[in-house]
Amino acid sequence: VAQADTLTYEAACERIEAIISRLDSGEAGLRETLELCQEGRRLVEFCAAELDAVGRGLEELRLDELVARLEARRASDTA
Amino acid sequence: VRNVHGFLSALSEFPERPAGIPGSELTGPWPVGQYAAALRERLRGFVRVQVFGEVFGFKAGRAKVWFELRDGSGALPCSMWRKEFDALGLGPLADGVQVVAAGGCDYYVGSRTASPSFSFVAAEVRIAGEGDLLAQLDRLRRTLHAEGLFEPQKRLPRPMLPRSIGVVCGEHGKARADVLAGLRRRRWRGRVIWAFAPVQDRHAAPAVTRALQDLAACAEVDVIVVARGGGSLADLFAFCDETLCRTVALLPVPVISSVGHHADRTLLDDVAAVACSTPTHAAEAAVPVDCAAARAALASATARLERQGRRAIVERARTLARLSRAPAAHVERHRVRLHQHLRELRASARRGVAEGDRATTARAIALTRKSRAAALTSARGALRARSDGAALERTATAALERRRRDLDRLSVALAAHDPQRTLERGYALVEDSAGEPITSAAAARESAALTVRMHDGRVGVRPDPPLT
Could you give the ipTM of this predicted complex? Predict the structure, then answer.
């Protein structure tokens, strides 16, 4: 969970590249291969989620609208 | 009067002169070229003066040089004959150089194929010192640089895939559409938070600063774009404001500026994380990846991961299967080899027995032959032995007879030589006390006692003393 909080799209992409190049080298043993595949799948899911987040549709907001929305949320939280 | 003549001659060139605007109290309509010529005459009639300002956009053509003179409140396009300018020996004028120009207004009337242009035609130019505005700007730039304020923004990590992008721009300017076009080009469809602010003049700086601070205060804003189309440097001075630049330098969110163009570098461009020449480029810098391409790359990465994972298992399973089959195959191979050996052994044994038979038969035949020969030889031997035996017997009998005769003869001879026989015939033998014969009278005289041996016994005697 801590990792998911700090993980960035670019770090995930970089790690996926590293994993694939390690797998392509053919030097990884069975256990390592399976662990790398599992980690890779997790990272791919993360990246796909990030891409989905900027792929649903352009949302345009004015800064004052955003501020108002955030303040309303804060008010409801405190209530 | 001269002008009226001119207009009349022009009228003769335009036989189809259009009717004027109904109800208008103004004279005309006049042909535009004629009017332009009149304007030129009027402008040339302006009083000739000296003006000063900062040079901008100096260009040298074959016949003329052009530049603008600018200051904080206005600008004037200027030109000068190339020959006269070169004679001054100033060389190309850099932007911001403050000059004094002496001359007057002129107007190029243009033609059907050439644009008209107004310019202040300088007859003389004198360098007046460093441009005030640019000198101020340069001092501020040096100060900010010395304080290290160009660096912090550039050190901020910029996300490859921001979810929310804050944009500071004019609400009705072209920059807004350009930013959206850049984002579309990246096929990015996240959230854009607009912070509209006046971007026209010096009064814009506080509003832009506030907008930037507000955007940076929103935790969800990943990157901020400050966008404005190009303009004169005086117009862009809002983005050289010291407070604005210091604020941007210390913002925790990366700022991408696109407030000028390549000829007008603002201080904001210097302190920002990235400076772009257009709002479209700024949007592309805010989203460094093409989202569709990234999606495709991700799909390919997924496929490769799946393939590698599957291959790792399948290949190992194949290896295991091969290994598990190996002992059985090994045994089978040995069984086949053993059978082969066995067959060879049997064949070889059969061959060996047959050969043995043949050899034994041959040997038996040889033995038979040899035994027959031996029997023949032994029969011959027996025959010869028998004849030899008869001969031997004969020889032996003859030899025995001869030996007997010899013996008789020898015994007669021997008896003839026996001393006993001599003694019997009357002879005696003198011996000393030791029994040794004494054969001389001298020896007998010297012996104390003598023995005379006769054929029937011995008599002791004593010699007499010698006779004289």
Answer: 0.82
